[in-house]
Please model this.
Amino acid sequence: MLPTAEPPFDPIFVEEPPLSPNYEQTIIDNVGLPFYADVDRPDEAPANERERTIDLAERILRAGGVRTGFGHNEEVRTSMESWAPDADEECDADPGYWRSSVLLMSPQEMNFGQLDGEPEERYKKAKTVLAWAADCIDSDVLQEIERSQAEDIKQAWRDAAEAELTQREIEQFAEDPPEALDGWTRLDANHDAVKVAYVADNHGTPSVAAVFEDADSELEALEFTLEEWQENDGNPREARLNRYCVTTDGDGAYAQLRSHLLTFEVEPMEPLEV
Model:
């Protein structure tokens, strides 16, 4: 029997682990990627418990105002300094660096929630912030911040998985363009420069969207009116463009064309040969 997977992070303020075991794989599966898909960890997702601890501490410092009861970094500093045990004061919970960590934190760190220093120093500062917060900030607020962190981590993984899925779909589209896509129909273009073209009625204007090689042999993705396309014998290098094809997903002409085809609400047209 396989051992039970452990949650990636222990709960700090909440009662149950904020993230389930193998949550990344669950997200990848739910997005629709195959189980063997390799999705790089997004920058927004902490790589380990230490990074997660630092991020949570910084979130607490940034919360400020009404949520935590501290409206200014000087209020935070005053609270921390009065909370941290003195050098000669015995405190079983203190690992021995609380006061020094408080004194090392600058107003900018407290005000903007960006802990500075080497990794070990940042970690000690973060642990100090969490210990102070547990004693000085309402537990409901801290639980809300911890849950929000978990949701942001899951969303970062979801975005990364969706980006990977989109990239795979772009590559599949470039390798084997479908006969039809979202109302656009594949056009049997006969000009040598055209790699793939689609035709549809785009808001009342019969249009052709195509990937083709320009005069410098670079791939471009543009939309033309069907009239302009036909008047130039299907030569995209000569036809006057109607719209640029743009995308925020992926790079390259095929990504631009695919995004263009999925963006506009079009009416299908009968297949043409141009």
The longest helix spans residues 139-175. Residues 11 and 17 are 5 Å apart (CA to CA). The first strand starts at residue 180 and ends at 181. Residues 180-267 form one domain.
